[in-house]
Design a protein that fits this description.
alpha/beta; eight-stranded parallel beta barrel
Length: about 300
């Protein structure tokens, strides 16, 4: 991992983290209680969030590296470096990662988003019956975190999608009751003949997904959308007219070649100009760039805002 212009990357002492967890688990709640917070949006009105909730689904791969995210100390170092870069507003992750970042003191003046449903494990037969196995609304509230995020994949032929849809609506209700923002990431999905789950990024499918997600729960006052760029980026302007909810772009996997990265950045750049789009949430493409330069990948993304 290259450090770019940030100097030496932060080093994570796993032994020290384990010692604190084993001897003083209360230190996590204490670190959360004294964490210095900030508003969700600063003066720019834009958001740049680094995502690292993939491992809890068993999704550890990046490109052709099947276990790229399996080394927790390495992941934490990459996260700490990304969070130290100018213009990075915060992080989206599951409890285990956020607890480590709290102990490392890496979440001061950052937006902290708890990842809520991680039960739809990558590649599992029950992947679409996506239970809420991560942060609950009461956890996000108790820890003084700033928002939650849920994934909503809907396959019109899979009954498991109905359970996910209902539980997502109740999560939206519970977050609204606490006046906590919740970022809903909706897709229309389908199974390939081989059984793999794929998301439909056509303009019509993304439009339908946005319309469904926008209507969840008894109030949309605290709902944000987390949306992908459509297969044809030129369709995004029409697609984003589907809702007045504020939205952030999903970074997704962008490929390892320089050409892939340039194409992805141009897609993001165009969509970020749309009136409802307020920022970008990206994970593996920033934390595990092909050239290893995390700082440069993050800085490039920030400049797009």
């Amino acid at each position: 991992m290259s450090t770019g212009r940030a100097g030496s990357p932060p080093r994570v002492d796993v032994a020290d983290l384990v010692r604190v967890r084993a001897r003083n688990p209360e230190a996590i709640a204490e670190a959360a209680a004294r964490r210095r917070r900030r508003p969700l949006l600063n003066d720019s009105g834009r958001l740049m969030i680094v995502a690292a909730d993939h491992p809890a689904r068993g999704a550890l791969g990046v490109g052709d590296r099947a276990l790229a995210m399996a080394n927790r100390a390495d992941l934490l170092e990459r996260l700490c470096l990304a969070l130290s870069r100018p213009g990075v507003d915060g992080v989206l992750a599951t409890a285990d990662i956020l607890d480590d970042l709290l102990l490392l003191g890496a979440l001061e003046h950052k937006v902290v988003m708890g990842s809520m449903n991680r039960g739809g494990l990558q590649g599992a037969g029950f992947e679409l019956d996506d239970r809420f196995t991560g942060h609950r609304p009461e956890d996000i509230d108790r820890l003084g975190f700033d928002a939650g995020k849920l994934l909503l994949r809907l396959d019109y032929t899979d009954p498991g999608s109905l359970a996910t849809l209902e539980s997502a609506a109740r999560a939206v209700d519970a977050m609204a009751e606490r006046r906590l923002p919740v970022f809903v990431e909706p897709f229309v999905s389908r199974r390939t003949p081989e059984g793999a789950l794929v998301n439909d990024l056509s303009a019509e499918a993304v439009t339908r997904a946005i319309a469904i997600a926008s209507g969840l729960g008894g109030s949309s006052a605290y709902t944000w959308l987390k949306v992908p760029v459509t297969e044809n980026p030129d369709d995004m302007a029409e697609v984003m007219r589907t809702s007045t909810l504020p939205a952030v772009l999903l970074g997704g996997d962008i490929g390892d070649s320089p050409g892939d990265r340039v194409a992805a950045h141009e897609k993001w750049r165009g969509a970020l100009r749309l009136p409802t789009v307020r920022g970008l949430v990206a994970g593996r493409s920033l934390l595990y760039p092909a050239d290893g330069d995390v700082a440069a990948a993050v800085d490039t993304a920030v400049r797009l805002l």
